[in-house]
Amino acid sequence: MTVPTVVTLDIGGTTIKGALVGADGQELKRLDRDTGASSGESEVVARVRAVARELADAGTVGVGLSVPGIVDTAAGVARHAVNLGFRDTPLAALVAEEVGVPVVLEQDCRAAAVAESEIGLGRDARDLMVVVLGTGVAAGLIVDGRPLAGADGSAGELGHLPVYPDGEHCACGQRGCLEVYASASGIARRYAAAGGTRAGATAADVASSLDSDVVAARVWREATEALGLALATATLLLDPALIVLAGGLTGAGDTLLRPVRSELQGALAWRQAPPVANSPLGGDAGRLGAAILAWRAAGYEDVVLRDAV
Amino acid sequence: MTVPTVVTLDIGGTTIKGALVGADGQELKRLDRDTGASSGESEVVARVRAVARELADAGTVGVGLSVPGIVDTAAGVARHAVNLGFRDTPLAALVAEEVGVPVVLEQDCRAAAVAESEIGLGRDARDLMVVVLGTGVAAGLIVDGRPLAGADGSAGELGHLPVYPDGEHCACGQRGCLEVYASASGIARRYAAAGGTRAGATAADVASSLDSDVVAARVWREATEALGLALATATLLLDPALIVLAGGLTGAGDTLLRPVRSELQGALAWRQAPPVANSPLGGDAGRLGAAILAWRAAGYEDVVLRDAV
Question: What ipTM did this prediction achieve?
Fold first, then answer.
């Protein structure tokens, strides 16, 4: 008897993280491959197709793809992803051609938010926000149980909220963007620019030396202040039941959570802040979310991968 | 033959604006009554019930209520409205008891957004934001065709976005809230505080004297700058197809629209701003939205009141 499976691919700037997943959430096969991004769009697409084909077995009923950038989920098109060369790339159709089953495409933060709402901390929440704090900062929003894509598929650009209108310049051309202060790259850059003595310090290094390094302590405080402000803004607009932090910066654990919770509540004078927690899904959230969406696209509405966590 | 009708009530701080509406959108009867807010919750509820009963006819199939504050639409409960004394008031059930038909309750900005999306400028948009610029500032959000309420029914609090984190104090206890700068009351207050020479000037007075009054010009510019920043933030998070301005301040017409459009685009370095327009529905948006929701609650999904505008 053939057991139904889905293929899930989380396509990042450097690695395609793929898996073949059973209905119990178990990973039956795992395949990570270099994205080949330096060779451009057609090479990336060829590798995505190849990984999907290699992973699929006789029982595969669907494929889920998680990609960065601007994604039109309904059309299955990767509208724009600078680091992968995607530009109106009909990725879902191209992979479906290869594998012969329904393929669903979702933006990576929204896929992570789907995973969080189905099998992570958001199981009881209809409205939640997942904030991915990595090289950049972006959010995946779940509203009334569904991912919020927006009119152009670009909702959730939390990293470019102008938290300080007259603040430091951002590479995007705006000023005072959250990402300038609270991304891993921003923290490392600001530590070095402020004369931090630890050469080549990463954001994790900064987080781990708050007690002994006044520059680190200040840069970290400014990061969590900016993040608290942005989360207050998002709370006022969206009223989430829960905010989940994800991405590399959450490696700092309570060193991140404690000041962010405090700054968020401090910025909300007249309403209680929603709870803020670190994701238990780690770097697997995008791939798990794409797997959940693949099951749904294949008509298996009840598969929620609860055993995957 | 009995013609089906709905009763719609827009319950404001001072006036209950009621109407009996036919399926073609025509108002068959109109009834405005003082809210009686100074006498407290029970008097307001009694008046709402009385107006609903007076308006209902033999054909009435549903009632729609639009109320300010925090509203739990699913439960039909007005959670909190300071000016009306509502505190977990089960208004839908209380009116249903009086009229004997299904009653739907919606927050006023969300009701206005429903009207805008069904019969106003948002007919072609699945995602839009209606910003009501009156004594205060608040937004009604439509996401993927549905009003966004949030976990506690308090989504859309645009007026308290901290646009300037170190800005002027707001009555809410926060600093730099949009409402401080861009509400009608905020504009009038800031004009007076800045030494504006026109005693008792309203926001409309300020808007109409930009060419001759440097204080008015500065206060108005600061209002539209703050609004542009807040709309940029909302655009980055929600990616609406359209932003509709409503409320008293839109009486200024292009004097409002032109700088707001320019400030919004100026704050968005790397993406195009959504179009911004003034609502054609004026003060009727809340009542029209409640009528649309009443038709839906009564099972008349197809009635969209297109003839009402």
Answer: 0.93
